[in-house]
Every structure is written in structure tokens, then in C-alpha cells.
Task: structure prediction
Amino acid sequence: MGCAGSSQANAEGNVKQVKKPRSWKHPQPITISQLIQLREEFWDTAPHYGGRKEIWDALRAAAEADPKLSRVIVESAGIILQNPDMTVCFDERGGRYELPTYVLSEPKNLIRDS
Result:
């Protein structure tokens, strides 16, 4: 048996297009600076929960890039996407990486800082 992402193993090197997650809503309106702080906290702590640092670094670069560049980053790092929105990914060794939607897209109720 393969890992949950093994369905893409046959198409290795053929990552489907990376997409931003569907729109979401934060429990309360959130400012851009608060969102940036949440993202920084996630990226600072993510490697401590397992996985390889270089994969976390590649995931961060892909999350912060436009979708076409994200695809190139994911392919070059050997990351297998379970979902095109990058919320669940695997490395080549089968390590699982879960990304919250707030690091991948902006909420509907984002308040621009003035």
C-alpha cells in the first residue's frame, strides 16, 4: 500500500495546478498586521511539530508565491499535494504537512490597516 498521496505517484513530476483555498472567514474581523503575525507564528513553530525544515521552507515559499511559481517550487522540492490548495502535502519520505488556510489566502473579513 502507498501513502494517501500515492495516487499522484504515477504522475510524478506532473503536479496539477496549485490553487488558492476557497474563501474563508476569520471568527472576528482581522487586520492585515494580525494576519501577518498569525502566519509568522505558524511558520516559526511548524518545523517543531515534525517534518523536514527544508520542506517547511519550500512550503512557505510556495504559499507566499503566485500559483504558477508555487507549482515549480512544489515540484522541485519533491512535495506531493493531496489537495491542489496545498492544505495537505507529503514529502518523498511520506511525511505529512498540513497548512492552515490562513497561511495560504486572505479571509473575507480582512480589515486593511490604515
Notes: Helices lie at 32-45, 53-64, 67-76. The first helix runs from residue 32 to 45. The first strand starts at residue 30 and ends at 31.
